[in-house]
């Protein structure tokens, strides 16, 4: 199969979805009002509520949601063949992700910029809200652990990426100061910052002493490290500590000082990266030799495909970003279509090139089968396959292999980092909400809530046992991340459906993807929790079993409550919570 044809079909569907379907949703379903005073203006505080140009906000939103997951998920999902992954990415993006991301942004804007977890009380009551907040808190904690684990491992594997990534931080702070204190436009400084990053990337790829390789500094992989740990485990621990110190600072600073300008730089970085990869695709004109469907797969694609692709098609975490940070920065309500729906389309474009980069890496079906011999092998090698395949595509533009690999790794690290510090900020919000709910004033304080978020993340990601030894927490909980993430998206779509129904608006556009997603996710979670991870099946999965079982029970409870709310059972009881649109 010709890879260029696959890309054209996918991109064509995305263009049509944004041009027509999102316009229909904006005008006929969410009914955006250009004159509505958004929370960014109504509650402007210069810290979280900051009216922002839609292109800058799109940059923040897109890079916050476009972490490593839309790359990693599709790179694993091609295990069942490239065709199922391709179809779910393009159809899921247009009919599920766009609707979900756009919808959570719109409902939050109409509810004082509150998070989707807080808004839940207005539709499914206090008990449902508390259960929902627990699921959200668990998911965000897992996201923190997974992405911290991913970044630390990438820094160890690709040490040339470290310096360019860290140089971005002071550049972003300078841009934020210039933009908000000196009224300078962000575009040109952001492009210059990106050029500086890539210039450093070219130098570090070729000059070994500029590569911050902690393992080599300690004498190599076989050398002894600290506290009785090996060199690799010690390097991993050091990077985790550095990353968590960084996200603590980044998540407590006002959004304009670091978050917005850094994400704006990264939005250009992703644009440039995508242009490089798609241009490389045109010039190399590769053939897809991987199978369209894998008849030898050791697990069924149904329902695992839909939770494995995860962020590449739809993600509950996007709703947390939409309602947690983006809704507080939306300048005009009509900007929600561009920020929310087009943000989802951007993620789909990234997932599409991830699929193509991986499946064009192999010279034959046998070559593919040797690498993707089992689902566990796919999990272990997916991200590395993307980096290698993307570097080959970039090489079509004449970029040296070492430089191409460094640039691709920088892109992956940058987006994992933006997701990580946004997730810590969101976790701080949720902890504060729980502190308010249970009257624990200390938890509502910014630094206390952030400390709880960072310490709990460190405890989870540094779990000392498991298949990868020390620091395998992120690896261990990855399977639960996919199911919890999709479950959150399904519940959010259910809440949006209730919101639309109460306004007398046709809610089929949110109800249909919600039913599909909830069925697939609960089906997958039931199989995994009670068969694959159960204590009587394999004691090594006890952590997954306990967390998964709790989330599954809470999810069923929320679904039952939400269905009752959708039927109108609680209308009188919840009337006092209706928003004052």
UniProtKB/TrEMBL annotation:
Bilayer topology term: Multi-pass membrane protein
Coiled coil: none
GO cellular component terms listed in the entry, alphabetical order: plasma membrane
Alphabetized PANTHER family for the sequence: INNER MEMBRANE PEPTIDE TRANSPORTER, PEPTIDE TRANSPORTER CSTA
Domain of life: Bacteria
Keyword Transmembrane helix: yes
Biological process, per Gene Ontology: cellular response to starvation
Membrane spanning stretches: 6-21, 62-80, 86-109, 130-152, 158-179, 191-212, 224-249, 270-288, 300-321, 341-365, 391-418, 448-464, 476-500, 507-530, 542-560
tRNA-binding found in the keyword field: no
Keywords for this protein: Cell membrane, Membrane, Transmembrane, Transmembrane helix
Name listed for the protein in its UniProt record: Carbon starvation protein
Domain CstA N-terminal: start-end pairs: 2-363, 378-524
Entry's family note: Belongs to the peptide transporter carbon starvation (CstA) (TC 2.A.114) family.
Signal peptide (from-to): none
Subcellular location: Cell membrane
Pfam family, one: CstA
């Amino acid at each position: 199969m010709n890879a260029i044809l696959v890309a054209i079909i996918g991109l064509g569907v995305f263009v049509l979805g944004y041009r027509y379907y999102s316009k229909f949703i904006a005008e006929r379903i969410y009914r955006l009002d250009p004159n509505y005073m958004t929370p960014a203006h109504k509650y402007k505080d210069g810290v979280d509520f900051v009216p922002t140009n839609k292109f800058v906000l799109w940059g923040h939103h897109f890079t916050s949601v476009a972490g490593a997951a839309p790359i990693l998920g599709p790179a694993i999902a091609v295990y069942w063949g490239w065709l199922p992954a391709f179809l779910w990415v393009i159809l899921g993006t247009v009919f599920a992700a766009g609707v979900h991301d756009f919808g959570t942004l719109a409902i939050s804007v109409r509810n004082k910029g509150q998070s989707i977890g807080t808004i839940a009380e207005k539709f499914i009551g206090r008990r449902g809200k508390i259960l929902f907040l627990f699921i959200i808190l668990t998911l965000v904690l897992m996201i923190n652990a997974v992405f911290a684990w991913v970044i630390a491992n990438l820094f160890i594997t690709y040490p040339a990426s470290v310096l360019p990534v860290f140089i971005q931080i002071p550049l972003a702070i300078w841009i934020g100061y210039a933009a908000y204190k000196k009224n300078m436009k962000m575009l040109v400084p952001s492009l210059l910052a990106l050029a500086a990053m890539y210039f450093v990337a070219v130098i570090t790829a070729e000059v070994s002493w500029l590569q911050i390789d902690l393992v080599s500094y300690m004498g190599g992989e076989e050398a002894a490290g600290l506290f009785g740990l090996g060199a690799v485990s010690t390097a991993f621990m050091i990077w985790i500590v550095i990353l968590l110190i960084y996200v603590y600072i980044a998540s407590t600073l006002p959004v304009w000082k670091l978050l917005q300008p850094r994400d704006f730089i990264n939005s250009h970085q992703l644009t440039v990266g995508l242009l490089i990869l798609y241009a490389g695709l045109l010039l190399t004109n590769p053939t897809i030799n991987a199978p369209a469907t894998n008849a030898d797969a050791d697990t069924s694609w149904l329902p695992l495909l839909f939770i494995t692709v995860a962020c590449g098609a739809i993600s509950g975490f996007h709703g947390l970003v939409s309602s947690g940070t983006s809704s507080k920065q939306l300048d005009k309500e009509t900007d929600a279509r561009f920020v929310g729906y087009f943000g989802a389309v951007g993620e789909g474009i990234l997932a599409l090139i991830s699929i193509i980069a991986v499946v064009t890496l192999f010279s034959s079906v046998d070559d593919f089968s040797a690498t993707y011999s089992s689902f566990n092998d796919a999990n272990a090698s997916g991200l590395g396959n993307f980096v290698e395949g993307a570097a080959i595509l970039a090489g079509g533009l004449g970029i040296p292999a070492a430089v191409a690999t460094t640039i691709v790794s920088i892109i992956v690290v940058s987006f994992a980092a933006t997701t990580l510090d946004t997730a810590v900020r969101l976790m701080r919000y949720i902890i504060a909400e729980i502190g308010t709910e249970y009257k624990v004033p200390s938890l509502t304080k910014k630094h206390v809530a952030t400390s709880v978020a960072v310490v709990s993340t460190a405890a989870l990601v540094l779990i000392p046992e498991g298949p990868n030894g020390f620091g395998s927490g992120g690896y261990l909980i990855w399977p639960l991340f996919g199911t919890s993430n999709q479950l959150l998206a399904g519940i959010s779509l259910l809440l949006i459906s209730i919101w639309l129904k109460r306004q007398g608006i046709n809610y089929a556009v949110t109800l249909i993807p919600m039913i599909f997603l909830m069925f697939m996710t609960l089906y997958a979670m039931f199989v995994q929790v009670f068969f694959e991870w159960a204590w009587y099946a394999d004691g090594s999965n006890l952590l997954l079993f306990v967390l998964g079982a709790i989330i599954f029970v809470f999810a069923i409870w929320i679904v039952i409550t939400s269905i009752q709310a959708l039927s109108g059972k609680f209308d009188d009881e919840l009337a006092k919570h209706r928003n004052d649109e």
